[in-house]
Amino acid sequence: MSFHFTDQAWWCEDCAISDLADQFGTPLYVYSRAQLEANYRRVADAFAPLNAHLHFSVKSNANGALLRVLRDLGSGFDVVSGGELFRALKAGAAPATIVFAGVGKTRAELEYAIDQGAGWINVESAQELDVLEEIAAARSCRSSIALRVNPSVEADTHHHIATGGHRSKFGIDVAEARSILQNANRYPHLDIAGLHIHIGSQLATPDGTVAAIERILPLTELHPIRCLDLGGGFPVAYRPTDHFPEPAAFAEKIIPVLKDRSFEIAIEPGRSISADAGALIATVQYIKPRDGRRIVVVDASMTELIRPALYEAYHHIEAVNRGEETTELADTDRRSDIVGPVCESADVLGTDRVLPILRRGDRVIVFNAGAYGMSMASNYNSRPRPAEVLIDGATARLIRRRETREDLIELENAG
Ligand SMILES: Cc1ncc(COP(=O)(O)O)c(C=O)c1O
């Protein structure tokens, strides 16, 4: 069991969250190794009938300790920058198990990927192909390339995390991909043998993915294609009332479309593996009344978790300990906005939440923060980024120390 409410308090595996907050301070990211592993197995098992290679999407959580746990389970990695590639390699990933996507890879990043022997480079424009051809020619090598195709399929998700629509910046459109494949001999140093799609994140149904696969399959008739990379996007239940299809339901719809085809299949799940394996813990600083509600100011903010400010994303929030309530309050009087200390009106972690009475020093837990939480954290307002701990049963391991004020100026020229 990962995060659970037992004896009136929240726990991560066998560690009480309040003890972790006392020991490591807040704001604090807490991850459950058991949940991370269970999530990996759930996605891998769902796609086992397709013998799919799983590449964990490092952008969702880039902490090396988590990457190592996943590597040990057999995961490869999907990276979108030279920095993520570096992190995956440092975590001990075999270069051949890394796929490198990204709409604006620099020449230096592409050279780094080729020199390190990254398994696949997912190319997002014809010009990027030209740059790669030059780099590979200069090294007299032949690199494995997948074309990231923009299938012109609108995903059923928030517009900021949809990536497959015809106006999106991602990928190469189908007509151009067709022309590249028909003229693949223009690139003697590139083995253009893969097609890649990723139509968006937090997909509400498998329908868009299936439509995208059907749209790109005709391309495989034009040139020998060994691998289809279907991207990520499997959804996570952020609200207790959310019911989304499981990865198995995606696989069930995808398998018939690909059966009788001999491609290797790759997938790039991120949040479906890391989101509910992590939570953000914060301490209540101040409470003030506002229009019949309470504003609860905590010590975590949009700098630790930007998703609510960026996408109006919902993260479920609970009090870490539920003490004896001394006052009977109607739900309307319990409504709280949980906000951070950053000087931005958008710095709100949750609005209109029904919570027990909170006092200064109480802790709250923000769930499903393991994906796009710490990996999107910033130093805005010169806030040192938080610590991260990985829980394994009753053991809590600090996997990234809290930044200090000195860290904030470390890279500046003090003169
Ligand atoms: C190319 C690519 N692959 C995989 C992912 C992972 O998506 P998710 O975290 O929704 O599984 C993303 C995220 O946006 C992406 O851009």
Keyword list:
TIM Barrel, 2 domains, 8-stranded parallel barrel, Lyase, Ornithine Decarboxylase, Chain A, domain 1, alpha/beta, 13 helices, 9-stranded mixed sheet, 415 residues, binds pyridoxal-5'-phosphate, 27% helix, elongated, 25% strand
How would you characterize the overall build of this protein?
By secondary structure, the chain is an alpha/beta fold. The protein folds into 2 domains: 3-30 and 275-409, Lyase, Ornithine Decarboxylase, Chain A, domain 1 (Beta Barrel), CATH 2.40.37.10; 94-269, TIM Barrel, CATH 3.20.20.10. 27% of the residues lie in helices and 25% in strands. The protein has 13 helices and 21 strands. It has helices spanning 17-24, 33-46, 64-72, 82-90, 107-116, 126-138, 174-182, 207-216, 247-258, 271-274, 307-311, 331-334, 405-409; strands spanning 3-6, 9-12, 15-16, 28-32, 53-57, 76-79, 98-100, 120-123, 143-150, 172-173, 190-196, 227-229, 264-267, 278-290, 293-298, 317-319, 335-339, 348-354, 363-366, 387-392, 395-400. The strands form 3 sheets. Strands 4, 14, 15, 16, 17, 18, 19, 20 and 21 form a 9-stranded mixed beta sheet that branches. Strands 5-6-7-8-9-11-12-13 form an 8-stranded parallel barrel, surrounded by 5 helices. Strands 1-2-3 form a 3-stranded antiparallel beta sheet. Helix 8 (207-216) links the parallel strand 11 and strand 12. The structure holds pyridoxal-5'-phosphate (PLP).
